[in-house]
Design goal:
The chain is α+β, with helices and mostly antiparallel strands and 439 residues long. It has helices at 3-24, 29-40, 58-61, 65-73, 99-110, 136-139, 189-192, 289-295, 420-438; strands at 145-148, 152-154, 161-163, 166-168, 175-184, 193-201, 220-226, 231-233, 238-242, 247-254, 261-263, 265-271, 280-287, 297-298, 303-311, 316-318, 320-325, 329-337, 343-349, 360-361, 369-370, 375-383, 398-399, 409-417. Strands 1, 5, 8, 9, 12, 13, 16, 17, 20, 21 and 24 form an 11-stranded mixed sheet that branches. Helix 2 (29-40) packs across helix 5 and helix 4 (65-73) packs antiparallel against helix 5 (99-110). It is globular, with a radius of gyration of 23 Å.
């Protein structure tokens, strides 16, 4: 038996033992629950963030204990809508709760939500302030480049609005991006900003692959801000190319909140050092968006299924999966149809929730690596019936549109294109490691 398997068994036994002991003793906030909230809840549920209440201290949590139990047991919170029974299951940013953690929260509430001994509490998390760049700590510096959209004033009442300014980056030479973060402005910007999609406009020389123009007139998908996503961090030896004289095209979606507010969106960009060229170039794609624009048709009172097919002309590694639909969106799967006809389910989001745009980021070892000739197949299901509680009007015929009450479907995916030699090497390395683990 390998050391890896021994370690895995030891960890599993330790977890089983911890759960068994916990089941026989009183569950307390300080010893058992607080660390769960720190890892999976406080990112949103703290002052200044989008959560409707703070879950930082015992005093914050206690009045909401039964509501917390309901949402956790129902797997509504934390928002992680991926079906864990199929497809890839390892993600860098997995905030979902295990069955054991859900049981701990439920038993804590059922026991009367006891505080416990203060000495058992984990150290508090030093969360960044709202007005700082969250990725600055990761990179050890502020963004190397900040591009801001022109401001927009959203009326206190009225329909949703889209503000689509195009702003030069100001770069005079080509540079490579290692990370990006998008944030609405302070002073109410987060309140009126539903989301902000950021596109890249730049002139590219024809070659084996150039960035796709995902939305005609806007450009190639770069990144976005939405509830559940703030940007992207690229793996070692990878990056996105930002060319001299490039432009950022913003697609800012604003909604009224009963008060007139002015907002703008900033993109913070961390760059590799000058002269550095990564081995792999990452391309942002909004997979299926043009097929969605051309074919989406949702009759009143119906549940509909639509498909998009995206061929790969080069080998590629998919870095993440982020399905996007609107209020009638119900589920979306992403499959790989291999050149030999084999079909593999990569991931299925079976309980899509438009309130949360969760970006499922694969680990280094789990990111799917696909050969040239593979077809990525998206299957999107929309529910335009009265049974959909989020449906504003099941009597309406719905087509593609930007308003939340219209609909769409596509998947935001960062793709790293590979050479045939690199593809073969990655596949061989993974196969060898699986064989070693089995031994």
């Amino acid at each position: 038996m390998t050391n890896g398997r021994i370690g895995a068994m030891t960890a599993a036994l330790a977890l089983f033992g911890a759960v068994s002991v916990s089941a026989q003793t009183e569950v307390t906030f300080t010893r058992d629950v607080e660390s769960i909230l720190q890892r999976s809840c406080q990112g949103c549920h703290r002052p200044g963030q989008m959560g409707p209440m703070s879950l930082v201290t015992y005093e914050d949590v206690r009045p909401w204990a039964r509501a917390v139990r309901e949402k956790v047991v129902g797997r509504v919170m934390p928002p992680w809508h991926l079906d864990k029974t199929v497809g890839i299951r390892q993600f860098e940013n997995d905030t979902s709760l295990s069955d054991a953690e859900i049981d701990i929260v439920a038993r804590w509430v059922d026991a009367g939500a006891p505080r416990g001994n203060a000495a058992d509490a984990p150290p508090p998390v030093n969360w960044p302030a709202e007005d700082v760049w969250r990725l600055a700590e990761r990179y050890g510096r502020e963004p190397d480049l900040v591009v801001a959209s022109d401001p927009w004033t959203q009326a206190a009442e009225g329909q949703d609005q889209w503000w689509q300014p195009v702003v030069p980056t100001g770069l005079t030479e080509d540079r490579w991006i290692t990370g990006m973060e998008v944030r609405p402005s302070m002073g109410g910007g987060r309140r009126v900003t539903h989301h902000s999609v950021v596109y890249l406009q730049q002139e590219e020389q024809a070659g084996d692959h150039t960035p796709a123009v995902d939305v005609p007139g806007r450009g190639s998908y770069l990144t976005e801000f939405a509830v559940g996503k703030i940007g992207d961090v690229f793996r070692e030896n990878t990056g996105k190319l930002l060319k001299a004289d490039s432009r950022i095209a913003f697609d800012n979606h604003y909604h009224s909140v009963g008060e007139e507010l002015t907002s703008y969106t900033e993109v913070g960009i961390w760059l590799h050092e000058k002269g550095y060229v990564p081995k792999y170039r990452v391309f942002g794609r909004a997979l299926g968006v043009q097929q969605s624009m051309a074919t989406l048709d949702i009759p009143p009172g119906k549940v509909t299924t639509h498909h998009a097919y995206v061929p790969l002309t080069l080998p590629a590694r998919l870095e993440n999966y982020q399905p996007h639909m609107h209020v009638r969106g119900k589920s979306m799967s992403m499959e790989a149809i291999y050149p030999d006809g084999r079909v593999e389910m990569l991931n299925h989001v079976g309980n899509f929730d438009f309130n949360w745009h969760v970006n499922y980021v694969y680990t280094d070892d789990s990111a799917p690596v696909l050969p040239a000739g593979t077809i990525i197949h998206l299957t999107a299901v929309h529910d335009n019936t009265a049974a959909n509680r989020a449906n504003p009007d099941p009597t309406q015929w719905v087509g593609w549109g930007q308003r939340s009450y219209d609909d769409m479907y596509h998947a935001h995916v960062n793709m790293t294109y590979l050479t045939e030699e690199d593809y073969d090497a990655i596949v061989a390395d993974r196969r060898a490691r699986r064989t070693s683990d089995d031994d």
